[in-house]
Specification:
Elements (H helix, E strand, L loop, with lengths): L1 E5 L4 H12 L3 E6 L2 H9 L3 E4 L5 H7 L7 E4 L15 H21 L3 E7 L28 H15 L5 E7 L1 E3 L3 H11 L5 E3 L3 E2 L1 E3 H14 L4 E5 L5 E2 H11 L7 E3 L7 H9 L7 H7 L8 H6 L5
Parallel strand pairs: 1-2, 1-4, 2-3, 4-5, 5-6, 6-11, 7-10, 8-13
Antiparallel strand pairs: 9-12
Helix pairs in contact: 1-7, 4-5
């Protein structure tokens, strides 16, 4: 298939370009800079300079081009967010950016649309000890400052899964890690003993970038239109265990321990590291996409990273 990929020069997008081409697909990569365009061309993709938040410019840039599917992996995040404001630009990409890309899909004649969603759309809260499946409520407001993020994730999914004449699929990725900026940043913080562990700690569901890209290719080829899929590895981990695993893999000292209440000074980090306990089930993706993670847990995935 010919794929129009938004966010083609991002961490996940770059890995996805490589895996799509290896699978025999042709990639048209959207990017905003000449540097990005050169990177895409060197990787075997056809670059198109366009900003997906500029609808008119996007549609103009795509005039005369055709594609079978659109994949939306655009994000404004370059590292793990620590404050609400760090998510605002990505919220806009999930909301209006998705609207513009759906119009772009019509322009290029695409019949399939895959969008990047996120596991925290289930809510920044304690989900208990049972695995969270795709049937759980998604994007439900809680009446607090996190609702802004939940609304954007729900808007993204609703637009894609209900788009007329489009096989829309939402991939609810877990917490990304791998050979990318945010993981290296956390490792550097761990080496300086600036990445503590708290007790009590939340529970998170990681996914290696390589496995996330492989699941996306599988969804493109075998996913059912109108469906969401959880994309995470096989073993949810306590956030304290996750931090210790990064420290060990990067050769950093044992992280300092702090009481969890200290993190309340940064509400987003407190919610991510302490308040949220979510064990994401990946059984539907395994069953319907014929996909399994190469790295069953973050321990194997972190150990495989070249730390330089």
């Amino acid at each position: 298939m010919k794929i129009l990929l938004a966010g083609a020069t991002g961490t996940l997008g770059s890995e996805l370009v490589s895996q799509l081409i290896d699978a025999g697909h042709t990639v048209i990569g959207l990017c905003r800079t000449e540097t990005g365009a050169r990177r895409l061309a060197a990787g075997g993709a056809e670059p198109v300079l366009a900003d997906i938040m500029d609808e008119r410019g996007l549609l103009t840039a795509l005039e005369g081009r055709a594609a079978d599917a659109v994949i939306h992996e655009a994000t404004a995040l370059t590292q793990t967010p620590t404050a609400h404001r760090h998510l605002y630009a990505t919220n806009a990409l999930r909301d209006m950016g998705t609207t513009h890309l759906l119009r772009a899909a019509e322009t290029v004649g695409a019949h399939r649309f895959i969008t990047q969603s996120f596991f925290l759309g289930y809510g920044y809260r304690d989900h208990g000890d049972d695995p969270v499946t795709e049937d759980a409520p998604f994007g439900v407001p809680a009446g607090d400052s996190f609702d802004r993020h939940l609304r954007s994730m729900l808007s993204n999914e609703n637009q894609v899964l209900s788009a007329p004449g489009m096989d829309g699929i939402a991939l609810r990725y877990g917490l990304f890690y791998g050979p990318e900026v945010s993981t290296y940043t956390l490792a550097d913080m761990a080496r300086k003993r600036r990445l503590p562990v708290s007790r009590p700690a939340g529970v998170t569901s990681p996914i290696h970038i390589v496995d996330a890209a492989a699941a996306t290719v599988a969804a493109l080829e075998r996913g059912r239109g109108g469906e969401p899929y959880n994309i995470a590895d096989d073993h949810p981990v306590g956030f304290d265990e996750y931090v210790r695993a990064i420290a060990r893999a990067a050769g950093a000292p044992e992280p300092r321990r702090i009481p969890s209440w200290l993190l309340r000074a940064t509400p987003y980090m407190h919610a991510l590291m302490v308040r949220t306990r979510i064990r994401l089930s990946n059984e539907k993706a395994k069953r319907e996409l014929n996909w399994s993670p190469r790295f069953p847990s973050c321990h194997e995935g972190l150990s495989a990273i070249d730390w330089g």
